[in-house]
Amino acid sequence: MSRAERDAWIAGIIGLAGALIGWVVAPSQVPHAWLAALTAWIGWPLGSMALLLTHALTGGRWGYAVRPALVGGVCSLPLLIPALIPFLLTMPALYPWTHADTASHLANHFYLNVPFFAGRGIVYLLVWFGLAGLILRALRSAEADPMLERLAPAGLILLALTVTFAAIDTTMSLDPDFSSSAYGMIAAAGAGLFALAVAVLLTAAALPPAEIRADLGKLLLGLVVLWAYLDFMQVLIVWQSDLASEAPWYSVRSTPFWAVIAALVAAAHFALPFAMLLSPALQRSRRCMLCVAGLLIVAEILYSWWLVLPAAPRGLRLIDPAAMLAFGGCGVGLALRLRPRPLAAVAHHG
Amino acid sequence: MSGVLAAFADEAALEEATMRLSLVPACRLQTYTPRPLEDDPPRSRLPLVILLAGMLSAAAIFGMETYADTASYPLDIGGRPLFSWPSLVPMAFEGGALAAVAAGFFGFLIANRLPHLHDPVDESEGFRRATRDWYFLAIRAPDAAALAEALSILDELHPELVEELPA
């Protein structure tokens, strides 16, 4: 076990212990804390798969530089199985539509009910684990690139559909009245951005050449703009239509505390990285890329809290960072444990 | 003003010629090369101009919209506050992007002294090789003395081709 892996597991176990203490002290805070951490973390494996498959279609030296980190992200996917247990146990506390009295008023009850939700969940798991298995098998073979290329079109379509519906099911349905057609795309853009930011953070330590850093900087800039565009369009459309079914979703997320978090997200998820990534000189600077990647990771975590916790409704509690740490530590630990060893060596030649 | 066109086989020779000829007073030099020179060119100020044009226009348009909505022509639309900032963003963004692109387009033309439809170097037959393998240097001298000095320096450099340019 490497030192990094040991540190990651220790961080994960500290986080888990914190979450467990939270469960004992204030059990009502666990469901949303766990879901927010799950929402942020799942972007890493899913976004990593999407980036690997996208790179199989587009090519480019950036993809070979971050491939070991992205493969690590894919390898952390099995964490989802134990992570689902607390989620499934606390579902009644999360979703109003699981209660018969609320559900009977809902027009979308045909979609939001426990059996159908479970069925969709099984499909997501099959698609994600199936794709992860196929990607890892392709990468282990001698002709990794052509195999990934054959897998990519169908894989990306399936990923886009499952990520969209999984986002609708797990976080948009916290408010069963709210609907936004951009929601799934925002989640997908956020996942891709999160996975690329983690990959840049892990790769920048290995000192890739300045041109590759600049390529990664341009990609990050593109994803930052895409995410900001989609998220702002949702705000704008809800603001202009001002409907009783949609506006409350933003009202509970603009209480004084959550409005401050929203402003921080706007700054850390868009304004600051956008301004920093505009300059080619900063894109080439290793320290700047580490800062931007770290900032984007923090922003995505804040964003998940902002999405999930106001639904409780509640503010930020100690259990929230603990749950986030549990996912981060265990995810990185698992990625380092399961990552195929020779891959890191091969990828350097790419 | 008279001039001369010289061609060199590689970048190093062009560089040496440029360096030595730049010491001749009042001579204007212009290079034409088949590929970008390896030496980093001086940083262009155009990106800064584009950034400023974009930011200033976006701010100006946002300010104009705010003035129109709150002071000049306040209108109650479905009970929204008069300063309804989300709906002001698209216009400010698009105006900013337009101004940035326009600044880039016209700034590029001005910085490169374009459009420039004809230049004496176009008359030279050999000049076509500037698109393939030769590195060209056009020298403009204000008077006969400077031209003679430039020619004597060129003589020492053994260029592939020397041609007089029409005035």
Coarse structural class of chain A: mainly alpha
Domain unit count of chain A = 1
Which CATH class of the domain at 2-39 and 136-165 in chain B?
A: Alpha Beta
Order of helices and strands of chain A: HHHHHHHHHHHHHHHH
Structure in a nutshell:
The complex is a heterodimer of chains A (350) and B (167). With 350 residues, chain A is an all-alpha fold.
Tell me about this structure.
The complex is a heterodimer of chains A (350) and B (167). Helices cover 79% and strands 0% of the residues of chain A. With 350 residues, chain A is mainly α. The longest helix of chain A has 32 residues, at 210-241. The model of chain A is unreliable at 343-350 (pLDDT under 50). Chain B has helices at residues 11-21, 46-72, 89-111, 144-157; strands spanning 2-8, 28-32, 135-141, 161-165. Chain B is an alpha+beta fold. In chain B, 45% of the residues lie in helices and 14% in strands. In chain B, helix 1 packs antiparallel against helix 4 (144-157) and helix 2 (46-72) packs antiparallel against helix 3. Chain B has a domain at 2-39 and 136-165: Alpha-Beta Plaits. Chain B contains four helices and four strands. Chain B starts with a strand and ends with a strand. The A-B interface holds A 232, 235-236, 239-240, 242, 278 and B 51, 78, 80, 84, 86-87, 89-90.
Considering the chains and any ligands shown, give keywords for the structure:
heterodimer, A: 350 residues, mainly alpha, 79% helix, globular, disordered C terminus, B: 167 residues, alpha+beta, Alpha-Beta Plaits, four-stranded antiparallel β-sheet, 4 strands
